[in-house]
Amino acid sequence: MNLVYVFYFQEYEGYLMAGHYTQKRAYAFECMDAEPEAIAGRSGDENGALFYFQKASCSSTGHCPPYIESAELTCVVCTK
């Protein structure tokens, strides 16, 4: 569950994603919408960026709970 502070509006919620660690620019984390919509008239492989779910690693951080080992991390995008 993601927290939205008072006086902020939730635009969308989703999953924290990034490129694979072997790819260039894999360090850029993005909050991807949990319910994405397709673009009309577009389909197939367009050789774009590949995104992967980011998962909790409790053994490396020691911060469990609130995280669950190997669970996909969620996120929320808000505006003021």
Describe what this molecule looks like in 3D.
- The protein has one helix spanning 58-61; strands at 9-18, 30-33, 52-53, 74-79.
- It is mainly beta and 80 residues long.
- The protein has one domain (9-34, 49-79).
- Strands 1, 2, 3 and 4 form a 4-stranded antiparallel beta sheet that branches.
- The two termini are 20 Å apart.
- One of its GO terms (cellular component) is extracellular space.
Which keywords apply here?
four-stranded antiparallel sheet; 4 strands; 80 residues; flat; Ca-dependent_lectin
The count of domains is 1
Query: Mean of the pLDDT scores?
Result: 81
Tally of helical runs? 1
Low-confidence stretches: none
Cα-atom Rg, whole angstroms?
Answer: 15 Å
Largest sheet: 4 strands, antiparallel
Succession of helices and strands: EEEHE
- Structural category is mainly beta
Assign an overall shape. Answer: flat
Distance between the termini: 20 Å
Total count of strands:
4
Strand content: 25-35%
Brief write-up:
The protein is mainly beta and 80 residues long. It is 5% helix and 28% strand. The protein has one domain.
Which SSEs are present, and which pair or pack?
Elements: E1 9-18, E2 30-33, E3 52-53, H1 58-61, E4 74-79
Antiparallel strand pairs: 1-2, 1-3, 1-4
